[in-house]
Amino acid sequence: MQTKRMTFPSQWLPYALLAPQVIITLIFFIWPSARALWMSLLREDAWGLRSTFVGLDNFRRLFDDPLYFNSLQVTGVFAVGTTLLSMGLALMFAVMVNNMIRSRDAYSTFLVWPYAVAPAVAGVLWWFIFNPSIGILPYVLDMVGYDWNHRSSGNDAMILVILAAAWKQISYNFIFFLAGLQSVPQSLIEAAAIDGASRAKRFWTIVFPLLSPITFFLLVINIIYAMFDTFGIIHATTEGGPSQATNILVYKVYRDGFVGQNFGSSAAQSVILMGIVIVLTVIQFRYIERRVNY
């Protein structure tokens, strides 16, 4: 088989076409990562006027800090809860909309709108809904005997931030799931229906396996979203409280660095957070991708 080779009128044209992406990657990814790695090896004074090289001392202090391990645990619970809830609801909505004949486009538009809401705005919306003083849901929950107060209850606060973060991400997942459902060959589903397979069996044995590439992609994206892109939601709803109950890693980086002015520890935490995401992504592509049917 003969392959075609692309030729350019100038030997510099390929490099010119690659230059914008390379420059953006260097400025917004490589340089900040290298800067954070270097700062994690330093310790600055309270005024930020002098830096001292301390090696891995910032990392050793983190591993001796119980609050940091609490933040790791909180991040794990938050990431798993947000990912499962947002992907589960998005898949359910996508199946419901895909089965519609009329009003499919209208429902799709309504379900996509929340993705345009900024994370901080989404946090404020859910803060008002669950506000113990003026929120409607605490009033409803009080009627059934549950005293909701995310200001004093860590479990209530975690539920609040998971709901807000999942609601923000459902639209993104919904778009991909709906596109995947619309690409499933109807002949396979009709053949299974003729053979007597129930609707649930047709979904779990035919449709869902065909959605595995999209599910795998969204699994990676949602975990990264929960660990990095939910700062605005946490800051607008609970600010990491009460009693560190919602202080996820990305918010702890902000609190220690910009509030506590401990830039060395904050940089070390950001390096560890970046390493955790890289390890999780490698594990997902190395082991989970084997179960994906392309």
From TrEMBL:
InterPro entries per the record?
MetI-like, MetI-like_sf, UgpAE/MalFG_permease
- Compartment(s) where it occurs, according to its Swiss-Prot or TrEMBL record: Cell inner membrane; Cell membrane
The lineage's top-level taxon is Bacteria
Q: How does it sit in the membrane?
A: Multi-pass membrane protein
Give the family this protein belongs to, as stated in its UniProt record.
Belongs to the binding-protein-dependent transport system permease family.
Main localisation: membrane
Instruction: Please give the Pfam families that the UniProt record associates with this protein.
Output: BPD_transp_1
What biological-process terms (Gene Ontology) are attached? transmembrane transport
Report the protein name in the record: sn-glycerol-3-phosphate transport system permease protein UgpA
Where in this chain does the record put each ABC transmembrane type-1 domain? 72-284
Record's function text: Part of the ABC transporter complex UgpBAEC involved in sn-glycerol-3-phosphate (G3P) import. Probably responsible for the translocation of the substrate across the membrane.
- Name the residues that span the membrane: 12-31, 76-98, 110-129, 157-181, 202-228, 267-288
Could you confirm whether the keyword ATP-binding appears in this record?
no
GO cellular component assignments: plasma membrane
Any idea which UniProt keywords this protein has?
Cell inner membrane, Cell membrane, Membrane, Transmembrane, Transmembrane helix, Transport
Query: What species does this protein belong to?
Result: Rhodobaculum claviforme
**Quaternary form?**
The complex is composed of two ATP-binding proteins (UgpC), two transmembrane proteins (UgpA and UgpE) and a solute-binding protein (UgpB).
